[in-house]
Each structure stands twice: as structure tokens, then as C-alpha cells.
Amino acid sequence: MSSAIPTPSPLGTAPLSEPQRIIDTFIAPSKTVTDIKRNASWWVPWLLMSIVSFGLVYTVGAKVGWEQVNENQLRLSPKRQAQVENLPADQRERQMAIGVKVTQYIGYAFPLFILIGVAVIALVLMATLNFGAGAQVTFKHSMAVVMYAHIPGIVKSLLAIVSLVAGASPEGFTFQNPVATNLAGLFTPGSALYSLGLSLDVITIWVLIIEGIGFSVISGLKRSTTLGIVFGWYALITLISVGFAALMS
């Protein structure tokens, strides 16, 4: 958790409560980030995302089943799927059983992965802004900006929960694409184009825009500069993901 010591608010600006910071992240992100300059606490959005992720994982276990989830995930890696299918029956069953356990453990460890992922993103963006653009962003502020920026991700998880409860097909569920907020559905699962389609996601773009706005407020740099840095890194990661998918398909 952040140990940031709150600093006085700018003249005429009242400190925001945590619920206000959460709500403003959706409707007025600049207000949230301005308050982050006062207090760089980030644990509340992480806790909120963790609770929703546990809700999704529980729903997946109840409505899809971990064996089905593992089979769906395996289809996203055609080469790996072919290797497993060509194994002798006893070895194939053993591999599938291991895969089910690993998938289940990863699902329930999502809050930890969120924390690690946000920390890595915060570190990379902080370093890029400071060494590449001459800003003076601290890690605690970078961590808070990235954590709050990822709050819209709960919308995707909530939509996935509603979809599964409403009777969505278990055969179509994957954690990479729990609900159709992107263009991946237009392409063959596991292909390079499918990976590209995953990156063209409405929620993800929303998160990136909030990050760009947030780092502009925190650093004092032009919004076009911070948006360019955020989207530039995302484009690079997307290219790497597409290339890896091409190798595995």
C-alpha cells in the first residue's frame, strides 16, 4: 500500500473522498489526478478491482467450469493444442489436469497480477517521462495514476459476469477476451489478427486515454506528449504480442 503523506490541496480545491476519486475517474479524470497530487494513495482502486475480479472468477467457475476454461484457453495456442492432442491418452489427461489447476490458480491470483502489472507499467512510464521527456514524476504518483486509470477495466469484468449469468456460451469464454469490447471476434482465435483485434479494445483505449491525461496533470507536460508516450508503448507491446501469436499459430 502507498505510504504517501497527504499534501495541502491547491487553493480553493477541496480534497476528494475515495468514492469521489473513483467516480471522477470515469467522468472527470483530471479532477482525480489533481487530487492524486495531494495524496498518491492507490489501494482503494486496487481493492475494488480485486473484489470484482474475485466475483468474475467465482462466476466463471460456476457457469463455465475450469475444465472448459482450460480447453478454451488451449485453443488460443494452436501449436500447443496440437502437441497436447498428439500425446498418448494418459499423458494428455495428465497435461489437461495440470492445465486446469494452473488456470484456476492464475484466476484466483488476479489481484496479485493486477498489482504487479500496474507496478511495471508505472515504472516504465515514469522512467520514460523522466528520462525521455524531462519530467519529474515520482513512482508513488505514477503508481496511483496507472492504478486509477485501470478502474474502467471493472466494466469489462462486470459485463462478463452479467453475460455468463444470462447464459452466454461456456465454449466461447476466455480470460483474454471475457466480453466482446474489441474486434477479436472478427478473426480466428489464436491467430495474429486475433491478437491484433484484442488490442483494439474500447475499454483498453479508455484506460490509455486516462493514463495520458493523468500523466499530463502530474508531470506538467503537454497532453499530446503524454498521450503519445502512453500509446507508443502500447503500440510496441501490441506488435510484440501479434508477433508472438504468429509464431504460436
Short description:
With 249 residues, this protein is an all-alpha fold.
Description:
This protein is mostly helical and 249 residues long. The protein has helices at residues 18-27, 29-38, 43-63, 66-74, 78-85, 89-108, 110-132, 139-149, 153-165, 192-199, 202-219, 223-248. It has one domain (18-248). It has 12 helices and no strands. The longest helix is centred in the C-terminal third of the chain and has 26 residues, at 223-248. It starts with 17 loop residues before the first helix and ends with a helix. Residues 1-7 have low confidence and may be disordered.
Domain count = 1
Question: Helical element count?
Answer: 12
Note poorly predicted spans.
1-7
- Mean pLDDT over the full residue set: 92
The class by helix and strand makeup works out as: mainly alpha
| Major sheet attributes | none
How many β-strand stretches? 0
Order of helices and strands: HHHHHHHHHHHH
- What is the percentage of strand-forming residues? under 5%
Radius of gyration computed on alpha carbons: 20 Å
Distance between the terminal alpha carbons, to the nearest Å? 40 Å
| Shape designation | globular
Helical amount among residues, as a percent range?
over 70%
